[in-house]
Amino acid sequence: MYEATVSAPVNIACIKYWGKRDTKLILPTNSSLSVTLDQDHLRSTTTSRVDESFEKGDRLWLNGKEETVKEDGRLGVCIKELRNWRKIEEDKNSSLPKLSQWPLRIASYNNFPTAAGLASSASGLAALVASLAKLYELPQSPSELSLIARQGSGSACRSLFGGYVAWREGSKEDGSDSLAEQVASREDWPEMRALICVVSDLKKGTSSTSGMQRTVETSTLLKERLNIVPGRMEEISKTIKSKDFENFAKITMKDSNSFHSVCLDTSPPIFYLNDVSKSIIQVIEELNRSSGEIIAAYTFDAGPNAVIYSLEKNIGKVLGVINKFFPQAEESKDPFKTKSEDLPESFNQNVVRQGGWEKGSVKSLIHTRVGDGPRTLGKEESLLNEQGVPKTLA
């Protein structure tokens, strides 16, 4: 049996990717930078198997539901490119089994809501690419594999690394220099924590793909953003290497606000944040002011869910304000058993509507930390049964 099971992490951008200069190759209009989150809490797992006896045609299941693999679709393009790389190895060495010629069976599972602004496509495509690379025993580096992952989902290229990761926009028309590389490892700054406030786990109204294309076509603010981002990329890379949280937080919050500004400047405007999202921003800004220093940074991807970065020593203060003003529908399990701390004495509670938000305004909290890149899992963690069908369907 030729099979590989790999898990890949979620990444949350501090400098956002929004806009393509080439929609087919998924070449971005600007570079971006993200923090990889711990797979113990958020991950996609993919099992890939080839077998000469499988019926013709590739088959893929996502969370138990079969998806069509179109040759010219994003999944099909990734599979085709990785198959080609395997064929190159087979042509070099005639003793290798002809795996590139055999049908594939692929099962993928996310342990978090899909399409709700939690970067499910990024971890899913990264897991697919990493799994096939392992199955095909490809010699390419993670940066080289990121060229393929990028064509499936732009931000997927960053999920092929742990720690702090940059996706370089590149300048070549063929996209050969638009790849991901690690800026710093998890071990370089392990104190970083992330608190994800799940405001909604529903599928977002405007997909990232259609939203960013509309922005490129209609936003005048986007041009100004593209002039600013290169400086931010350089600056935030320095703050990560020097573990300067205050500047890291300032840049992260500015870039999130800049990203959502260009969404509003799009015609028709795109609204990813809701009233709860905006209230979280106000609470974090007031927490920083009343603490006398910047101890937390909010950022929002294409959805209403907040990701709040803080250092381990301050995360109890962040939990304190979130739990007070945004009571969850059900108690969330904290893997770190962190105690909520009281508000700073000078905290102005008038920034939140009287009495705070109703229970369930934040559905759940996910407390996690900076994590590692893709992991190869054992046979016992395979998602496929002996017939090549997901175990959940057997």
TrEMBL record:
It catalyses: (R)-5-diphosphomevalonate + ATP = isopentenyl diphosphate + ADP + phosphate + CO2. Pathway: Isoprenoid biosynthesis; isopentenyl diphosphate biosynthesis via mevalonate pathway; isopentenyl diphosphate from (R)-mevalonate: step 3/3. This is Diphosphomevalonate decarboxylase. It holds the Pfam family MDD_C. Residues 194-376 form the Mvd1 C-terminal domain. Keywords: ATP-binding, Lipid biosynthesis, Lipid metabolism, Lyase, Nucleotide-binding, Steroid biosynthesis, Steroid metabolism, Sterol biosynthesis, Sterol metabolism. Residues 369-394 are annotated as: Disordered. GO terms for biological process: isopentenyl diphosphate biosynthetic process, mevalonate pathway; sterol biosynthetic process. Signal peptide: none annotated. Its EC number is 4.1.1.33. It comes from Kwoniella dendrophila CBS 6074. Residues 8-180 form the Diphosphomevalonate decarboxylase-like N-terminal domain. One of its GO terms (molecular function) is diphosphomevalonate decarboxylase activity. Belongs to the diphosphomevalonate decarboxylase family.
